[in-house]
Amino acid sequence: MQRILCRILNFFWRSTESEENLQIQDNLLGDSPHDQDISKLKTVRGIVTTLCTDCGCINESIFFNPDMVCGNVPVNVGMNVIPLVEEDETTHALKTIKVKAVSDPIYGIEPSEFDKRLCIKCVTYTTGDNIYISEETFFPMQLLSGGFLPFKGDLLLVEYSLKPGTPNITINAVSFLNSQNMDEVCVTSIDGRTGIVDDIIFFTEDSLQKPTDYTPGLYDIVNVVAVDSIQPHCSWRAVSMIPVETY
């Protein structure tokens, strides 16, 4: 039975990939596939119900592939996960953007005595003191751990609790959803104060830790710390950059 399910998943996954490849080709002349309306992204809580070599299913209806799992953490059938999804306005099908594996039992599907919950949110904008994750919801800048400046499009992992008997929430802790050190990568594009590293990592000098006397240049070799972020043509954003070799 498991083999049959995997074959079915692979069929639908590859069909979806073929459609997405055509869409990406169309997007080369128009919008980037990463130019999502971040206000339409939402978090659901679920359980991995089927798992194959190159794809899986959450809640028997939400498809994902291993590349979508934050930090390439191995997942197993029955594991609690938090997928960030985008709902198709016509079919109402859920397209997976990212998946966060949850190992701590207090963040499981069922309510716990700790009344703590996790969700994935996207930065909509920032001010000097606050980070907004919707038009109305924000939290103080100092609540974000990691020591890096946030930017519109960054994906955050938010721990919150509900106030009993009310729809109000209390945000307890916030961190970047995922970060990764990438050493000796090349600056492949520069456009004013923004640029691209290795063709996949967006950066802006307005939100970048770097030596005060360094300005990124084309073809510079750099070490960066990158976080998951939804940017034009990129799914990473560099939050720190150290030059290794400059040109």
Task: Please explain how this structure is put together.
The protein has 247 residues and is mainly beta. It is 11% helix and 43% strand. The strands form 4 sheets. Strands 1, 2, 3, 4, 5 and 6 form a 6-stranded antiparallel β-sheet that branches. A 5-stranded mixed β-barrel has the order 13-14-15-17-16. A hairpin with a 6-residue loop joins β11 (155-162) and β12. The longest helix is centred in the first third of the chain and has 26 residues, at 2-27.
| Mean pLDDT figure | 82
Distance between the termini: 58 Å
Strand content: 35-45%
- Give the H and E element order: HEEEEEEEEEEEEEEEEE
| Computed CA radius of gyration, to the nearest angstrom | 19 Å
The backbone outline, from C-alpha atoms, is globular
SS elements, strand count: 17
**Low-pLDDT residue spans:** 11-34
Class based on secondary structure composition and strand pairing: mainly beta
Largest sheet: 6 strands, antiparallel
Helix content range of the residues, please? 10-25%
In short:
With 247 residues, the protein is mainly β. The protein is built from one helix and 17 strands.
Give a topology summary.
Elements: H1 2-27, E1 41-43, E2 46-51, E3 56-58, E4 62-64, E5 80-87, E6 94-101, E7 116-122, E8 125-126, E9 130-132, E10 138-140, E11 155-162, E12 169-176, E13 179-191, E14 194-197, E15 201-204, E16 221-231, E17 234-245
Parallel strand pairs: 15-17
Antiparallel strand pairs: 1-5, 2-3, 2-5, 3-4, 5-6, 7-11, 8-9, 9-10, 11-12, 13-14, 13-16, 14-15, 16-17
